[in-house]
Each structure stands twice: as structure tokens, then as C-alpha cells.
Amino acid sequence: MEDIVIAGISGRLPESNNLEEFWLNLFNGVDMVTEDDRRWKPGLYGLPQRNGKLKEIDRFDAAFFGVHPKQAHTMDPQLRLMLEISYEAIVDGGINPVSMRGSKTGVYIGVSGSEAGEAFSKDPEELLGYSMTGCQRAMFANRLSYFFDFNGPSTAIDTACSSSLLALENAFNAIRHGQCDAALVGGVNLLLKPNTSVQFMKLGMLSPEGACKSFDASGNGYCRSEAAVAVLLTKKSMAKRIYSTVLNAGNNTDGYKEQGVTFPSGEMQQRLVRSLYQDANITPEQVEYIEAHGTGTKVGDPQEVNGIVSVFCQSQRDPLLIGSTKSNMGHPEPASGLAALAKVVLSLEHGVWAPNIHFHDPNPDIPALTDGRVHVVSEPIPVRGGIVGINSFGFGGSNVHVILRPHGSKSLAQAAQPSVPRLLQASGRTEEAVTSLLNNAQQHKDNPSYLSLLNDVSGVPTAGMPYRGYALIGAQGELTEVQQAQPTPRPLWYICSGMGTQWAGMGRSLMQLPEFRESIQRSDVALKDTGLCVSRLLMDADESTFEDTVHAFVGLAAIQVAQIDMLQKMGLQPDGIVGHSVGELACGYGDGSLSHSEAILAAYWRGRCIKEANLPPGGMAAVGLTWEECKAQCPQGVVPACHNAENTVTISGPQDSVSKFVAQLKESGVFAKEVRSAGVAFHSYYMASIAPALLCALQNVIKSPRPRSARWISTSIPQTDWESPLALYSSAEYHVNNLVSPVLFQEGLNFVPDNAVVVEIAPHALLQAILKRSLKPTCSILPLVKRGHANNLEFFLSHVGKIYMNGINVDSNKLYPTVEYPVPTGTPLISPHIQWDHSQVWDVPKVEDFPAGSGGSTSATVYNIDMNPESPDYYMIGHCIDGRVLYPATGYLVLAWRTLMRSLGAVMEHTPVIFEDVTIHRATILPKTGSVQLEVRLMPATNRFEVSENGNLAVSGEFPTHDHTDILAVSARDIYKELRLRGYDYGKTFQGILESNNSGDYGKLHWTGNWVTFLDTMLQMIVVGLSGRSLRLPTRIRSVCVDPRLHEERVNEYADDQKAVDVHVNRYLDNITAGGVEICGLHATVAPRRQQQQTPPTLEEFAFVPCVDSDCLRTSEKLGDQLRHCKGATESQLIGAEAEKGLLRLLSVLCGLELNGNLRSELEQTVEKERDCLLQDPLLNGLLDSQALRHCLDTALENSTPGKLKVVEALAADGHVFSRAVGLLNIQPMLRLDYTASDVSIDQLSAHQSSLEEQGISTAQWDPLQGPATGSLDGADLVVCNCATGHTANPALLIENLTSAAREGGFVLLHTLLRGDTLGETVAFLTSQNNQEGLLTQTEWEELFQKASLNVVMLRKSFYGSALFLCHQRQQSPQDQPILIFVDPTDYKWVETLKVINKVSIKLKFTISKLQPSLRWHMQHLANHLVLLLQVCIHFEYNAHISNSNQQLIDMLKSLPYNNFFFLSFLIIRCHNMGEKHLSLLRFHHDINHANSVYIYIYLCLMIFLFICSNSVLLYIFLFYVFCPSVAAPLDSIQNLAAYYIECVRQVQPEGPYRFAGYSFGACVAFEMCSQLQAAKCPVEYLFLFDGSHSYVAAYTQRYRAKLTPGKESEAETEALCAFIQQFTGIEYNKLLETLLPLSDLEARVNKAVDLITSSHKNVSRDMLHFAASTFYHKLKAADRYVPASKYHGNVTLLRAKASSEYGDGLGSDYKLHEVCDGKVSVHVIEGDHQTFLEGEGVESISGIIHSSLAEPRVSTREG
Prior knowledge:
The protein is an alpha/beta fold. It has 56 helices and 60 strands.
């Protein structure tokens, strides 16, 4: 009898979404039982706090399983889980569930009940009938059989805890006895209804601690748990993987037991187990491990284990291993058997027995645990490969045992690296599901068995799994693609190309594929009599090989046949075939009407006959004419030969005539280009002379012509003649006719369906551009090979993947060596990696949904007060009053409390309660024996309760509902502002409240020793908490108690040497306590206020902050992938992307354009033709399709006239905002929307006319680039314009005219692309031929808005550079102009002017060349007065050449006492003669760079930043670009240089904290200084790095080192000095190299460098230049060797140039600073490149960032 095996498995278990997580939890000893309120509040009804719960039970992919939403909401979550995991279990076995439809497969599900059914059907008024089919236990099996279309037995089984293992036993025996061929077995359990747990608790079965302590002495019951597990059972011959073989399975029942029905019978368990092993001829010694039922109960464990011992441990043997998964996850009752099976299967797969937890002390009632016969697996133990048994016992006496044998296949070994990339296909419900599966496969790329299984299950119909993707495992690049496929089946069409596709190297890379190679070898056999060997021809071809027509035709045909062979091997059969010219031979082969040898030999003879015909020189050319135009214009002798496309024809004729005609067409502006045809005028009248010879030859090849099928569309016979004898057969006559007739390719393409997947069969994808122009955009056009591609093997495989991705099933496993099934043990599971569409949340019953868990709204809850001695209520006998036992008044309250908690599903012990207005109406007398019934009713509408006895009201009361306001801290300043508004104008002495919460019941009071002010402050505290703003005066106090000694003890220290005491206000007790004072019963009376005495409150500050989100859509993986494809796609990757929508398709179409003189015009025409690509592009429309548009519209709507909104959209035909905006605005039910769509002309809106009318949108003519809005268009509340899809020639005019349409106070909404981002630059290039004047940065747009009197109120900017600006038109008001003060006069009277000017912007302007020696005084004088001008923004502007006079400025700056400065923004030195900038630099540094300087001055690309704060801490900026260190500075290493500068800094500033910055190479110095100061425990407050880091330096030095010969220092010296010289001169690099390299040593090269520089700069010091040049070289050497020795623990701010240099590429956004920093790394991107980012706008950005950083509180390293 054939073995029955476990072939697939899946599950959800506590804290484990899949079996992979489950194994990790098991192996790591994780306790999967948790305490939380996912089902009910811990401790409800006195239940144990802990239980095992699944992570997610409210998610379900209803659409995939064909479940209607109404049905899904009332379907038992257990059944929802079973549907998903059953599918996963089948797929886990490597079986496509579609292949099992209609099979004799059984379904056996173990399930004990449907608690959800009870909840979903509790209200008969709401029943729809769906809960019947969704919750009946029979449906747990029947629904699965229905969905999968299984025709075998379908049974739900309930034997309590043994249900699921009994289901496995039933399935095993059903397959064994032929009732079914395979079976799906499942078990499921969810804990939804707490009452069920209460019953188990009352029976004494549950562990109070909520833990199954299996086999442990402390075992005291089990913990309930959830689980859902499904396994696929099949015959061995059907299995692709085998987890284990089921050797035997059986069940029995305890029968009658004196101890009761729930008492386990060890004897019956033994009897069952013994009989099963005897039947299977298995001796006890062969058994290695028993997975026991092992619930951890006092009775159950000894009964079970002692029975096991009596069966397996009666002879000498190794200790028997036992375990129980219940210790790890709790007891999932009906699912426990399969949960145990899952643990066993996973242990066998991983080769390790998973350990039990909670086992510490062996149960003394199980002697075998202590004498060594049985060993509990409490730590991972290797699997030895013996027999395994699994127990499962129901608490009603149903016992089941299953015997398993581990799969004997070899374990997975490390596979050899595959020689060719492996194509992997995957389908899924969502894009994320497919991506996840492909990523997982990449992790197992060396496991062909796993990859083969994944491919086997990939062919699910796209209607169910709409997303498809592929990956090339082992490819040179990460080739992965995912897209949504069409839900309906698509036809597959082959296009077989003709001449012109041959090229040297074609087919070589594909020879690595066995199927391709074997097909080529079959071609060799066919040609053996001709002496031609195709395989050798392809492998040895050079550029001239295929000039020979025989070689060309044979090579072309052989490759096409081999491609068709490979596709056919993968299960592909075309629905249609079209051939171009000689490509019809491949059509015949693909159609089956030509054999392999016939097709190859026909190509051979075609070529040979042409070659031997000695035809006159012929030529062919492609021309941009229609077929009719071509026939009319062709000169004598030239004929139209191939009708390729509507306006593309190939002409043929004499060489000279063709060349002359081509020249004429080019002159007249018509596209024309000669094509290679080996000097033959194919398809011309020249071919007629060849026909007889070719016919004779082909008749010998095609001896018995076969009929052509209807799928082969002829391109050599007009459609009118398709019924002629010539057209019916693939005969010699047909193929001769093909040679002598025109190619009617365009006519053939007309038959290709609109949704076809079109594959070009050719050695090179020559026809892609033609196909894309001729076929509908809905077709997917895919090449297989491309001339000159770097890796055509990967190209071919990736496009086979695209065929699959477009909805055609492909069996790519056929391309690779056959994987032997079943796969080896250890092959990864598939089931954990299947993801569903869980976007929808479905109903799950809650505690309150169960009748027993709720008191209902007004229904009574009855309590029996039993006074018998054994009753828990008997203690009340002690409540005896006046000789009678009365029910305590508090007892009524507890009953009401308990009832309230039940109605809320809350736990009494954890939930506070308040009783109010309690009235005791009568007493209840308790009898000495017997009971009394008390009824409690809750009335939710009034929050009242009533307790009654025999219908008589005993007690009533109320549960008040108080709104608990969040407690907020209020400062003393705000407290006294509030009190002042109420009329209390307290002076400082009476402002004693230091702090309070917002409710006024707690705070701190100031204690000064003055009892008067203190007691008054206490009274103030009472007022703070009162509502309203009336003035209240104290009129009565019940009591005041003061204890001075206690008061002194309670006084505490407060901030700023103040003393304080805590104050508490209790409004229930009507008292206030502070320190040793208690005031009770204060009565304050409202007093009239004298309004004239109180000035109205003044609004101190009202600041508008725009709402900005600069990183929208970042979480959209789809848009991220789209952007990556657009940015990173090579031409080869774009081929086939025409099936995409949007920009990707447009780029793909453009890649098909021919490179010729007409490229520009073709580009324009193509972009215009494919304009819809831009209009539909998901990236361009990303913001409009997101919530960002709604946010903008809502803002405009909320700030416009209520109830109506006038909207005008400009350029609406392309902008198309109306299609989105109207729907969003019409959400407002009472809004009267007046929406007008306008464009340059009304005609442009005609295409949208029906849509506009349907939405009630009017139309108008307006061109905002020509003039302002007029007539009905002005006065709009909102003006909308989307200019992201087109070029904006004049943005300033556009904004001005858009603003004209808005009313005063109206809004303008602009959607556009930004300069500096790839998307914007690309679209601008495509739409404006690289004229990018209209493409602006965000800052430039904002400047235009400012000029047009628009305030940006909202900005939504995508991560890829599109932006939505919502602007508000402000009222026009004269702006304050800055006062310009000329300070050149030496009388300095302008200083007096400054003293009287306030709150204005001042520009001080003077000429540096006119500086007088007395300027030092005037600058100091100004600095001393700056403190007086706190609200004046002072901007120093120097207009001058930098010349020797800058020494005067330097001297002046050095002498300034910086502690006199309050604020100096920055100093701008404008240099008119840029050629001298570096020379001036050197003089500057040479003179001031001394250790005893007041500052270390660093020139930073024409900027000097001086940041000076109140404590005089300086910011040191280190430049290392052309920086000349002083002579004393060591240059042997960055570390020593940094140490030297630390000493320099300490002479200026002995103590920290320090602030440092470094630019470019100086970043290394600054970073190392901070690291060394950190090691010395000196505080560093800030570190700013300007476009540099250790990695940036390394990238530069490595690049320049790469040019050098190792060991040749002369080359390194030359390279460094070339870079140095080019800072000052324009001498070309090569000339410098020729000059410097031959020199003898560094000294000679430095001298030569000085000569070269001083030849053009006469007045520069040679000594200074010599020093600078030599130190520059040594600096490079030091930087090249620099590696940070340790991590820096502080925070770093990197200001990075946006246009990254070649050194910055690949370093990541933070230049790899995260590798050497533990603290926070903040990255700011500044416009510009490595040099220009320190100029103009970049400087302003940097200044703002540094100022903001210095102003804000520091983030500690720990926080960072």
C-alpha cells in the first residue's frame, strides 16, 4: 500500500502569524501565553489573567474567497482563518490549488463549536441568514470543499480536545481505504466568549496562573489558548515535499469510568497506543519521541505518561523523549492535536526537538521522570531520526494517537552556484505580497528545490491573484519587477522579425541555456549535408559574418526556432503569429506547419539562391511616408517593399536610385534612412529572377506541405486572397511568394487584439518602435533579445518574466535542470510567506455581544443570596441587627457594582466606581437557611440602578459619568493672567501660586514666612478651580486650622532658592490643605465689578505658521518603485515597459526611436502623441490623488464664505483637477459650488465635455499666459492650476494672472514640479526641449508668490519633487522699506541716527577702499551701541575689490573686543575680480593664522561667519580646501594636526563647551578634534560639517590614488600639485602632467608650480605660494591615511551640497557618518555643488540652519 504523507502545512498560533514565527518562539523558549485584553479584560469573572491568543483575527481576504461582505461580517472568524491557512497549506506543498479542482480530495476539520454564531444571531430582528452559513460547524468543512471544488468527503469533527487529531486519523484512513486521493485536515479554536472559560474554571480544569506546567510537580490545570492549523495529506506519489510519513493512526474511547466522564483513563490510552504500534510492526525501541497531550493537570499528566511508560519503557533502551507544546502556547483544545503535529513537523525539518517550558520539578506521580526512563525535552536536543508518536485526548474520553516516520530524504546541502540566473515568478493579492515573496526567495537563492516549488505555485489566475512579479535570482543586478495584471485572460501573439535583426554575437549568451543549445544543435543536424554548422557560426561570428546572405538567413531562422522551442518548452502556445518577410519561416514553425529541419533548410536555400543569383547592386531604405504616398513618389525602379506601419515604409530598388531618393526626402524634411540589406533589394522585382531556383529547392525541402492554421496571419498574401490555394498551405510556393511580394506587415498587425501580449521573436528587437506605434497602448509588447545588450541571457529571462507578469502562465522551471521531488528535508516552508489583502477589518464578537456577558439594557440580573453553611454567602450570618440578620447596605452596592462591570465587560478589581444619590428604601431580612433573590436593574439612559426583592424596591442610586479632563500644568504667569481677567489685580507680594494644574485642585504655594499672603494665596487657589470668570469675594469660612510646627516640616525647597508647600483642594469635602493649614467650608459670593477699572485683555501674540509637509507620499512603495524605475532604468530595462502607464511608457516608446538627424522632431511628435502618458502618470498625479489635495481644498473652503464657493480652474484640459476636486468639494452637503473649467480655447475642453456637464461644471476661455482673468472669471474664492504636465514659459506672468482671478482674500492653488529633482528635470526636457526657464525651485516659486501679494498657507511637497502650493491673497499694504545709511563720511554722525531708529531693517553701506585708520574706533563704537538696538536688523555690506586693503579690515577685526558684541549677523565680502580670489585668500590666512590670534579666522568660499553668543563661546570653522596651515602645524597625520589645533583653540578658549565646523577636507580635522576632546572629557556642543566627512575624503583620495602606479610617489606628488595649480590658473590638466611628472623631486615640482602661478599673478609672494603648495600635498597624504579611531558620541550636523560630486556618490545621504557616530546625525541639503553651495542662496540657507541650531535647546547624545 502506498505511503500517506504530510505534504503541506500552515497555521496561526499564539503570538505567531505563521509557522516560521511559531518555530522561533518554540526554539527560543518564548512563553506565547500573554496577559492582555485582546479578548476580554484580564481577570474578568475571576478568570486567570493569561491565555494564548492569535495576533489578528479581524482580518480576512473576503474578495479572494468569494465571500460577500455581509456574509464575511457574520462568518465565524474560525472559518475565515481556516479558508486562508488551508490555501496556504496546499501551496506550501508546491501544489497550485487550481490543479486540484474537481479532484477526489476530502476535507476534515476539527472544531468544537462556534461561539461567534451565538453572538451573531442573538438579535432576531437583525438576522439576515448569513450567520447560519457562516457559523454552522458543518460549513467549516463544506465551505472549504465548495471553494476548492473538492469532491471527496467533507466532515467537521468534534471530540473536544482530540478533534483535530481525530480529523487527521479519519483523513488517513479515508485515503488508505480509497474514499479520497488526498485530504485537507484542519483544526481551529478561538476564545471569544468568557463564559466558556468560566465553565472550565468552575470544573477545576484551569490553571490559576494561566500556564500549562506539563509534567511539572506544580502543574495545577491548563491554560486555554487559540490556534488554527491546516495540513495537506496526500499519497507519496503525488507529494512534492514530504514533512513526514503517517505510518498509522487510530482512536478509541474510555467508555464508562467511576470517577466521571471527564476523568482520563490511562488504561484505554495504553490499549490504543499498544495496538497501533503492533499493527504497524514497530517495536517500542524504535520510538524516539512522544508528543504528549500533556495539559499540566494533576490527574491527566500521570495517567498519560505512566501509560506511555508501560508501552515504551519496559525494556532496556535510551530514555524516551517526551514533550508537550501546551507548555509553550497553552491548550488550544480542538486544535491541540494539529498544533502538536506542527511542532513535531517543524522540529523534524530543523533537526532539533523544540524544548518545553515551565518544567522545573518532575511530577512525583510520574516515577519515570526521575528514574531516567523518560526525559522531558526542556532544551533543544538533536533529532536522531526515530519514530514519533502524537497523543491527543478529549476531555470526554475520545483518545487519538498518530505514528509518524521522519522523511528519509537527504537534508538540504549547500548547492553549487548556478551558472545561469534563475527566473522566479510569484503572484499575490497585493504588490507587497509579491515583493515579499520575491525578497524571501532571494535569501534562498542557492536552494533550487525551494525556487522550483515557488515557480510551481505561481500560475494562479490573475482574477484571484492580481499582482504578478518576477526576479532573476543570481543575476548581476537586482532584477525584480512587480505589477498588477489584467484580471481577464490575455491572448499571446508572436511577431517574427525578418532581415536586419542579425548581428555578430547573437545567440551566444543564450547558448548557456540547455534548451536553446539543444535546439541549435538540432539545426546543425538539419544542415549537416550543406556543410554549414550554425552553432559554430553563432559562436565564432564577427562583424562580416552575416554580410553573407546564407549565414544571415540561417542564423536568423535558427535563433527564431530556438526561441520558439524554449517558449514552447515553458508551456507557451501563441494565439496568433505575424511574420515580417523571411520571418514567415519562423511563423510556419511556430504554427506547426513547418518542421524544424524544413524551416532551417528553407532559410538556407533562400539565402543560397539569392547569393548565387548575381543580382545587380540593390538597396533598401526606411522612409516616413504612407504606403500610398510612397507608391506615388517613388522614382523609376524604386518600389515600396514593406508596409511596416501607417507612415513607415521600406523601399527597395537599385542602390543608386534608392540613395538618391533618400537624399531628396531628407532635403524636404521627410524621415529617410538607408538600411543594411547585404546589397540585395529584397521584395523588389529583382527577386523574380530567383523564384524558379528557389521554388525547385524548397519543393525538395517541403515535400508534404501542411495546412496553415487560422492563427498564422499572412503578410505576403492580401486578405482578399486568404482562401486561395496558395494561402492555405505552408508550401514551397507560399514561401517563394513571400520573397517576391511586398510585406503587408501593417495589414497583419491590424489583427492583433487590443489586449494582446505581443512577443517579438528575433535575434534583435528591431520592430519594437513600429509595434508600439501601430498597436494599441493596451497591448504589452515584449522583446526577447536586444543587439549589443550587456547580458542578453538576463534580458531574455527578464522578458520571459514580463510575459508571466502580463498574465500568461510560464513554466520557467523547464529551462533549468530538473529538480527531484519530493524536495529534501529542510527546504524552507512557503506558507509563512503568503500574504493576503488584509486591508478590510471584519466583525469579531466582543464580550458584550454575548447575552451571558451583558446585563442587557434594562433586563434584570438575578443574584441568589444563599444562607446555607456551605455557601460563600454564609458569612452574612454575622450581620445581625436587633436580633435579625439583615442584608448589608453595602452588599446592595457591591451587587450593583458587579452588575455594572458585567455590562461593561470590565474587571471589578481593576475598575474604579462612584455611587451617588444612594437611597435605601427597605431592608432585606435574610433567613437562617435557604436563599433570597435580589434583582439588579441598570438603566443606561439615566445611569441609575435599582435593587429589588420580590418586586419591592430595596435600594436605588446612580453611577455618575464624569468627563475626566486631561491634567495640564499651568505656570504662575498664566494663572495670574487668568485671575486678572476675573478682576484680581494681585501685586507681586500676593502672587504666591507657583504652579497649579488646570483643574485647580493641586499645586505649589510660595512660603515667605508671611501668614497673611500665604493664607490669601490658599483662598486664590480655590478660585482658580472655579468655572466662569466672575469676581468672587470670601464671605464665610466654616473653619481654619493652622499648625505652625507641622507647616515648617512640610516646607520644601523650590527653584531659585524659593520655598514652597504642596496645596490640595478637595471639592467633595469642601476643604483646602497646604502645609500645616486646613481651610474648610469657604463660601465666596459673586461681587459686582467696576468695568471701567479693568482694561480689556490684549492679544499679546498672533503668529501665522504655514502648514508644510515636505515629505508626502514617502510611504507609498508603489510610487517609490515607479520613481526608481524612471530614474535608474537603462534602455534594456525600459524595453517592454510600454505596458506601463505614464512616464515609464513614454520613456519606453522614446527608447525605440532611431538615432538620426530627425531625432528632435521625432521626439517632439512622440511626446505630443503620447501626451496622455504624462497626464496619467502616477508620479505626476501623486499629490492630486492623495489626501494632500483634500487638505488644500478643505482649507480654502473653511476660510471662504460659508455655503458657497466659486472655483476657477486654468489650463483645465491638461490639468484635469476638476475630475478630483468637484467630488471632494461635493462631500459638503449644503455647499453651492460654482466651478468653471477654463483653457486657452473652448475646443481643448471638448474631449471632457460629457464629464464636465455631468458634474455641473461650466467652461470658459482664458489663457493665463496671455492676460488676466476677465468677466465672470474674476472674483473667485479659489483659483486652481495644474502645470505639472507641461512647460510654463513665464511663471511670473502665470502667477500674476492667476492672482487676478482671485478675490481679495481668496486662494490660489498651484500644482507644479520643482527644479533640482529628476522628475521635474525629465518632464521639462521632454516638454520644452531643455528650455527650463519655467522650472523653478521652491524658493523661486515662493519669491514669485511674495511679489504677487500671495502668502503660502499650505505646502504639500512629495519626496520626488512635485508640490502643491495653496496661497492666500493678502491685502495690499505699503511695505516698510529698509533705511539705507551711507557710512563713508568720517564724521560718524550716522551712529546717532541708529540710536533713534527702531524696528526697521538697516543697511550700512561703505567702501572698503575708503577705510580710514579711525575705522577701528567707529566699528568699536558701533559694537558698543548694538546692545541698545535689539530690534534693529543690521546688515553690513562691503562693495570693493579684495586687495591689500583687506589687511586693514583684518587688523580691525582682530582688535575688536568680542565680548562687547551683542549680535553680528555676518560679514559679506563681495569680490568683483574672481580670478584673484584664492590669491587673496592665501594672503589673508598667512597673516592671521597664528596660535595667539584672538580668533582662528577661516575663509569659507567668500564668507566669514562669526557666531558669538552671550557666553562668548566661539564657532571654529576649519577649511582644508586650499588652506595653508602655519609652519608649526604637523602634517604627518590628521590626528597630530587635530591635536595641534586643539592647543591653538585652548589658548583662545581654555574651557568648553566648544563649537566646531569643517568644510570638505577640513571636516576630517574638525571631526578628529571633537573625538580627541571627547576622549579628554572636554564638552563639545556643536559639530557642523560642510559637504565633507571621513568617507568623503576617502572617496576623493581613493579616486586620485586609482590613477597612480603603486609605489610611484612622483605620480602622487604630480597629481596633488596639478589640483593645486588649477585652483589659480586655467592650465589644462594634461599639460600640467607633461610639465611636472618628469621633474626630479617634490621640491622641483613645487618650484615649477610657483612659477606657473606667478607668471599670471605677479604680486603674489613666492615664499607664501611655495609653502602653500608643499603643505597641500602633505595634507592630501595625511587625509588619505585617516581612519577615525573611535566612534564620536556627540551630535553632528551635515550640510551637504545637493549636486553631489563624484566623490559623494554612493556614500549615502549622511556620507557614512552613521558608521562613526553614536549621536544624532542631522542632514541638511543645500542647493549647489561642492563649491557653489557656499555662495548666494546656499549661504543664506547655511546661515539660517546654524543660527537655528545655536538658538534651539541641545539634544543630548542619549536622546540623539
